[in-house]
């Protein structure tokens, strides 16, 4: 009996060791697969940070130079010139990502981002205030180019890398390291000026805005080191058009309508999201009376509002796996439209100084639902609804149209506000009416004009596109990288190599 128990105990130990070994192997496999997803996608943090921090920087500049900044043309451009640079970067790096390299394109865009963010923070022009504003504007254009490269190179490689992850959570992890990173960038971009302003006791305005901009260099520096270890994604090695002539006419016939719908939804989303993000501190300053409220008060409430992006994107991420990106997007924008109409109708009571807390909560819910919907899913849809050979350009065009929407929104919103006439209530209500109406349009487009996106859509799209090209006489043997450029195996993370 004792012998039997002893043997049973030994078997149990052996089985336990086997199970523990499988668990350890699974953890190691996950860590190898997730690192490229993080490295490729997380650079979008800089998009959120840099585009949100400039709203606070503009507020500080208006405090520091109340006459010259308000009257300078730079005030009109410093906030949104990065959008123009981003469009250039998205289109340029979309082509480079397809015809050169996913990883090398990422490294170049990261260097551009680091260099010009540092230059923007150090903007100076021999004591000439207007000259300094113009220099700041110029540097931010090039910062935008660096940000633009993160979309077609980084997000595309991130989407391709999720194919190495377990089915059922691939959309979640893509979202966590793309849109969620943008949203954390928005939050940190609001919080840093608050901390710096508090440290400066709401004085030393030059220190506040320069430090707030300069901190934007830190994250891409860390990411640059991580990206030095990346290899090309396997999907890219098999289906790249780096050495093949792109049949643009066939591509347009096959993907033209789909690209138009994806681009239009992205345009609508950025039109509202970035405009509201940039104007949030201004809205709060108006509620609080900017002449009386200290910077820490305005920036503090701005941080609270931006925090609502986080539950929207993080709690919404698994919904994209449960329902699929198309239905998750439609659900988010439909709920956002409802909240937006309610907020517009009751804005008069919400916007009083005594109810700024209620205003922040309702406005925050409005923003959070936008993240659950198109915020999380439009980039995912763009990355997974076309074939690998043209994915960089397809994604770059869609993202560029989105950024054009953001650019247009920052210019159109003042006119929408002005349409309210002398009524402060109507001036604030109109943007919410417009945005909520556009949400309804986005829901319809997603439901009726987009395809289903599953866990293996990237592989399916590559096969479908190959079959289409072959049916039109295109030699698909041209696709893929040369043998020496492909990645046949994954090395240990400790050896310094990961698979992208």
UniProtKB/TrEMBL annotation:
A single GO cellular-component term on record: plasma membrane
Gene Ontology BP annotations: intracellular phosphate ion homeostasis
Domain of life (superkingdom): Eukaryota
Sequence intervals crossing the membrane: 103-125, 172-196, 208-226, 247-269, 298-315, 327-344, 356-373, 394-418, 430-450
Gene Ontology MF terms: carboxylic acid transmembrane transporter activity
Keywords assigned by UniProt, alphabetized: Membrane, Transmembrane, Transmembrane helix, Transport
Domain Major facilitator superfamily (MFS) profile: 36-454
Membrane topology, from the record: Multi-pass membrane protein
Compartments, record wording: Membrane
Family classification: Belongs to the major facilitator superfamily. Sugar transporter (TC 2.A.1.1) family.
Name listed for the protein in its UniProt record: MFS general substrate transporter
Organism: Coniochaeta ligniaria NRRL 30616
């Amino acid at each position: 009996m004792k012998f039997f128990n002893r043997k049973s105990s030994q078997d149990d130990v052996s089985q336990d060791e086997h199970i523990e070994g499988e668990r350890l192997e699974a953890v190691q496999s996950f860590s190898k697969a997730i690192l490229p997803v993080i490295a490729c996608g997380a650079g979008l943090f800089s998009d959120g940070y840099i585009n949100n921090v400039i709203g606070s920087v503009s507020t500080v500049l208006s405090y520091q130079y109340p006459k010259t900044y308000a009257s300078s043309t730079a005030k009109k451009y410093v906030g949104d010139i990065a959008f123009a640079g981003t469009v250039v970067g998205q289109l340029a790096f979309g082509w480079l990502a397809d015809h050169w390299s996913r990883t090398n394109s990422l490294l170049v865009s990261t260097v551009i981002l680091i260099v010009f963010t540092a230059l923007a923070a150090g903007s100076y022009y021999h004591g000439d205030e207007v000259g300094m504003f113009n220099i700041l504007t110029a540097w931010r254009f090039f910062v935008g180019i660096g940000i633009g490269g993160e979309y077609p190179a980084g997000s595309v490689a991130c989407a391709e890398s999720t194919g190495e992850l377990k089915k059922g959570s691939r959309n979640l992890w893509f979202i966590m390291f793309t849109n969620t990173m943008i949203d954390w960038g928005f939050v940190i971009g609001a919080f840093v000026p608050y901390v710096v302003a508090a440290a400066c006791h709401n004085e030393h305005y030059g220190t506040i805005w320069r430090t707030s901009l300069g901190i934007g260099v830190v994250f891409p520096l860390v990411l640059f080191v991580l990206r030095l270890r990346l290899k090309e994604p396997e999907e890219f090695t098999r289906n790249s058009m780096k050495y093949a002539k792109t049949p643009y006419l066939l591509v347009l016939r096959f993907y033209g309508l789909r690209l138009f719908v994806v681009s239009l939804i992205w345009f609508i989303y950025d039109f509202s999201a970035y405009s509201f993000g940039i104007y949030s501190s201004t809205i709060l300053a108006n509620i609080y009376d900017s002449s009386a409220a200290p910077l820490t008060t305005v920036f503090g409430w701005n941080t609270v509002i931006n925090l609502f992006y986080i539950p929207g994107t993080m709690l919404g991420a698994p919904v994209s796996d449960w329902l699929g990106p198309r239905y998750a997007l439609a659900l988010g924008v439909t709920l956002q439209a409802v909240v937006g109409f309610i907020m517009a109708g009751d804005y008069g009571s919400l916007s009083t100084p005594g109810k700024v807390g209620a205003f922040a909560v309702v406005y925050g819910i409005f923003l959070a639902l936008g993240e659950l919907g198109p915020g999380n899913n439009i980039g995912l849809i763009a990355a997974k609804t076309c074939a690998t050979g043209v994915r960089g350009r397809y994604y770059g065009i869609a993202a560029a149209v989105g950024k054009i929407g953001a650019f247009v929104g920052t210019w159109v919103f003042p006119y929408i506000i002005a349409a309210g006439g002398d009524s402060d209530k109507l001036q604030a209500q109109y943007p919410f009416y417009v945005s909520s109406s556009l949400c309804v349009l986005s829901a319809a487009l997603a439901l009726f004009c987009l395809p289903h996106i599953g866990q293996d859509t990237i592989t399916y799209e590559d096969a479908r596109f190959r079959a289409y090209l072959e049916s039109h006489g295109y030699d698909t043997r041209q696709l893929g990288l040369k043998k020496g450029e492909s990645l046949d195996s994954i090395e240990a993370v400790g050896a310094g190599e990961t698979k992208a």
